[in-house]
UniProtKB/TrEMBL annotation:
InterPro entries the record matches: ARM-like, ARM-type_fold, PBS_lyase_HEAT
Pfam family, one: HEAT_2
PANTHER family documented for this protein: DEOXYHYPUSINE HYDROXYLASE, PBS LYASE HEAT-LIKE PROTEIN
Designated name of the protein: Deoxyhypusine monooxygenase
Lineage: Eukaryota, Discoba, Euglenozoa, Kinetoplastea, Metakinetoplastina
Source organism of the structure: Trypanosoma vivax (strain Y486)
Gene Ontology molecular-function annotations: oxidoreductase activity
């Protein structure tokens, strides 16, 4: 999807089909990648570009909402975006929920972070979605997200990929109060959680140099 090769559309469509791929995270990843290519085909590169003032340099799986990539009114407020983000009814596509996610990230206020944090813990439809929310919260490094990220890391019923992103998000914050929890989970029985916390501690050590 990030490469944007039209030649990969048939392959992505194949693995987005539940008849061909049993793993939901793989299907959903292919669904998002396919939609990204289709949007680029239909609306051009402009539809995928971040706002000119966006401080994030990541190639996101879906763009924030803009007139260039939206049909109908563009949701702008945190309240409007959270309604899209948190719609688990099936009426709102995963693509649109991702667009709301990155729109909230770009807003970056405490209220936007709180909306993302609620989605991280409340969503029950997609581990891939929750893992991306945790990644976005790591980009923002906002203290208001710490309770939700800690809860995700400590939740043994949460998918390992989500706990992985939560750990690294906490490591990126370089908050001394998080060290005890990160150290504790370096001995967790789940290898992904354990290894993620080891990496998170290294991230914490590195970024702490710049917080002095």
């Amino acid at each position: 999807g990030a490469i944007g090769s039209v030649s990969s559309k048939s392959l992505l469509a194949h693995y987005a089909d539940p008849k061909n791929e049993p793993q939901a995270a793989i299907r959903e990843s292919c669904e998002l990648a396919l939609q990204r290519i289709c949007v680029r085909e239909a609306k051009g590169d402009e539809a995928l570009l971040p706002p000119s003032n966006c401080p994030f340099v990541s190639v996101d799986p879906a763009p924030a909402f803009s007139p260039a990539n939206s049909v109908g009114p563009v949701p702008h407020t945190v309240e409007e975006l959270e309604r899209v983000l948190s719609d688990e009814s099936g009426a709102t596509s995963l693509w649109l929920r991702y667009q709301a996610m990155f729109s909230l990230r770009n807003i970056g206020t405490t209220e936007a972070v709180q909306a993302l944090s609620r989605a991280l813990r409340a969503d029950r439809t997609s581990a891939l979605f929750r893992h991306e929310v945790a990644f976005v919260l790591g980009q923002l490094e906002h203290p208001a997200s710490q309770p939700a990220l800690l809860a995700a890391l400590q939740d043994d019923d949460e998918a390992p990929m989500v706990r992985h992103e939560a750990a690294e998000a906490l490591g990126a914050m370089a908050d001394p109060s998080l060290l005890e929890t990160l150290k504790k989970y370096t001995e967790h029985k789940e290898a992904i959680v354990r290894d993620s916390c080891i990496v998170a501690l290294e991230m914490h050590k590195y970024w702490s140099q710049f917080n002095r």
